[in-house]
Amino acid sequence: MPKKDTSPRAWQRMLSGRRLDLLDPSPLDIEIEDIAHGLARVARWNGQTVGPHAFSVAQHTLAVEEIAASLSPEIGAVGGLAAMLHDAPEYVLGDLISPFKALLGGEYPVVEQRLLATIHLRFGLPSPLTAALTAKIKTADHISAYFEAVALAGFGEAEAAKIFGRPHGIAPERIDFTPWPAAKAERRFLQRFKVLAAAADKA
Question: For 102-123, how does the pLDDT look when each residue is reduced to its tens digit (9 = 90+)?
């Protein structure tokens, strides 16, 4: 009788039917529809935000892409896709708040970066990104986080500025930070991805 496999399961079944191995992810098992569906249902700030809907990672990534493109239009469609996908591993790993990530340390960032690199490979993005593009995305990420913290998560402006830096160059009213229902976030994410992917193919 064959021995029963007692090793812990390291894969997740996706709604597309793909089986994503977290220890050895393959770009063949990554679909943008799975990413959009998952990110639209992962809450930022552990769900500690105002309103009837969670502020999803999908909506956050759209805000980051919009901010990055506004501040640095030279990043183009490829940079926009990279901004949209900067938190893409969270569609399967979930969104751990930064303080908890710092406590975990260890293998978590390795798994996260491995999965992000595989996602980049799947969609034709460079891996790693250039230091300049990474910095532009991080700046946009911090700006979005500041506005989210103040508008949605109960932070005062001084407290948010101390953690994320005070944003410059973009007004919060330009971005829709009203939390969307999951279906709307998923649809908007897919729509924007398709626009950027088509533009990147022509570049």
Answer: 666 667 788 889 999 999 999 9
Q: pLDDT digit string (tens) for 9-41?
A: 788 899 999 999 988 999 999 999 999 999 999
Strands 19-21 and 11-13, by their bridges, are antiparallel
CA dist., res. 202 & res. 177, Å (int): 31
User: Which DSSP string do the residues of the chain spell out, in sequence order?
Assistant: -PPP--SPP-EEE-TTS-EEESSS--GGG--HHHHHHHHTTSBGGGG--SSSS--BHHHHHHHHHHHHHHH-GGGHHHHHHHHHTTTTTHHHH----HHHHHHH-TTHHHHHHHHHHHHHHHTT--SSPPHHHHHHHHHHHHHHHHHHHHHTS---HHHHHHHH----S--GGGS--SPPPHHHHHHHHHHHHHHHHHHHHH-
Beta partners for residue 19, in sequence order? 13
Residue 33's closest CA among 43, 25, 41, 44?
A: 41
